[in-house]
Write a structure and sequence with these properties.
alpha/beta; VC0802-like; 2 domains; eight-stranded mixed beta sheet; 13 helices; binds aspartic acid; binds magnesium ion
């Protein structure tokens, strides 16, 4: 049985019209048997805002209205003969309101995840009905039945072994004669509590399901026709890349390209399943296919940017040697779930930039880590920096590959350079005010 998993992002299910595009697209290929949906765009952000507890009464009312309006606009376009979908939607909306008014919500990650889960569940309810009304034998499937996770609410880790077994038992039999619509982003703990996989996690769900069901392809349908050579909002000549390797795509995700959730590639890489990224609105434009071995391996593939980076400089305490000190610093960072992107050391200090995979986590984790580090040593923080990364292949080769890059950067003052730990990236840190002009210069010079 050939099987393609198709994931639709928030913009692809934001209203009735875009849901119809999804339906038409899926119907064009019989192998598309599992549809993974994100929340309609805007809803997760709204639910996050409700969960944070920082809103006024009036703002909360406005958010409720926005969510209801968006969903009712879709519902109203459905035939929904016996009113079942309308009934289910009102029950869900009532429950959501009640939960969103819980005074403990902002201090309870468990309840916040439960609240966030409404976004994807609204989407799967309505999208399934869109398919049914087009005559497709579609059924909604609750992903939490098979996607078990740990208890780390907000950024839970899936149990892939359990998923492999449960997907074969509970999901696969349905695929013989049905199209399954399920939710991205959600999971459930052993004890039955709803969890989420981290913002943007629906891509990851699609990849996990592809691995569990041994799919031939994992499709990520979004609002752009693939992964671009750089951000087209900065460089108008940026172009979609027909192919990318897993390694290159992982570097791009890590260094700021917001196309795929960074964890997405691990399961598909393990299982050797190609990942396709394309646009729901213009599927005929093609897109980017991410595979193990590309037909071409150019030195320069893409340029990415991560904004608002901080350069942290730590003075080595008098009684410690730098290498002992590094060990202590890393254990503090580890405790806060932080990793280091760029690092340089000297006899008396260490400078580094921090990463947490997710900007919101980064802000709070850095705060905690830096306050702990400041009890060990002097800490100096420089802000207003961007990290630019050139992603490609064999960037370590000495035949002019790097000199070409640095020739283009002659007039730019760089704060830190990292000749990547693998041959797929070279990164540098520079003043944020120089970053757009530098990306333009690099793009026209390298491509
Ligand atoms: N709806 C979730 C989010 O906005 C998950 C996703 O879209 O992938 O983060
Ligand atoms: Mg997304």
């Amino acid at each position: 049985m050939s099987l393609v998993i198709s994931k639709f992002g928030g913009t692809s299910v934001k209203n009735f019209k875009s849901m119809q595009n999804c339906v038409n697209l899926v119907m064009r290929n019989q192998a598309r048997k599992v549809v993974v949906t994100s929340a309609p765009s805007g809803i997760t952000n709204n639910l996050v805002a409700l969960g944070d507890g920082g809103l006024t009464h009036q703002q909360r009312i406005e958010i409720f209205q926005q969510i209801e309006q968006q969903l009712h606009d879709i519902l109203n376009m459905l035939v929904d003969t016996n009113g079942l979908i309308s009934d289910r939607l009102s029950i869900m909306l009532n429950d959501m309101r009640e939960l969103a008014s819980d005074p403990e919500l902002n201090i309870c990650p468990e309840k916040q995840d439960w609240l966030l889960s409404y976004g994807e569940r609204f989407a799967s309810l309505l999208l399934t009905q869109c398919f049914i009304e087009k005559g497709v034998n579609a059924v909604e499937f609750d992903i939490r039945e098979i996607l078990l996770t740990d208890e780390n609410h907000g950024s839970a880790t899936p149990n892939t072994a359990a998923l492999g077994l449960l997907a074969k038992d509970l999901l696969k039999p349905k695929l013989e004669n049905k199209l399954v619509i399920t939710q991205g982003f959600l999971g459930k703990t052993e004890s039955g509590k709803t969890t989420t996989l981290g913002r943007g996690g629906s891509d990851y769900t699609a990849a996990l399901l592809s691995e569990a069901l041994d799919a031939e392809k994992c499709e990520i349908w979004t609002d752009v026709a693939g992964v671009y050579s750089t951000d087209p909002r900065i460089v108008s000549e940026a172009f979609p890349l027909p192919e990318l390797s897993y390694d290159e795509a992982a570097e791009m995700a890590n260094f700021g390209a917001k196309v795929l959730h960074p964890a997405t590639l691990a399961p598909t890489l393990r299982a050797g399943i190609p990942v396709f990224v394309g646009s729901t609105k213009e599927p005929e434009k093609g897109g980017t296919t991410i595979v193990q071995d590309c037909e071409q391996e150019p030195h320069y593939r893409a340029i990415t940017r991560r904004r608002e980076q901080k350069l942290v400089t730590l003075q080595t305490p008098k009684l410690l040697r730098t290498n002992q000190f590094i060990g202590k610093v890393f254990s503090v960072l580890d405790k806060f779930g932080l990793s280091v992107d760029l690092i340089t050391t000297s006899e008396t200090s260490i400078s580094l930039t921090l990463n947490a995979g997710d900007q919101t986590n980064l802000a709070s984790a850095s705060k905690g880590a830096l306050s702990e580090l400041s009890q060990m040593c002097d800490v100096e923080i420089t802000s207003g920096l961007d990290l630019i990364t050139i992603v490609g292949n064999k960037l370590h080769q000495n035949n002019g590959v790097t000199s070409k890059i640095f020739a283009l950067l002659e007039d730019v003052s760089l704060r830190m350079i990292s000749y990547g730990a693998n041959p797929h990236n070279i990164s540098f840190l520079l003043d944020a005010s120089d970053s757009e002009s530098t990306i333009k210069k690099l793009h026209s010079g390298l491509f």
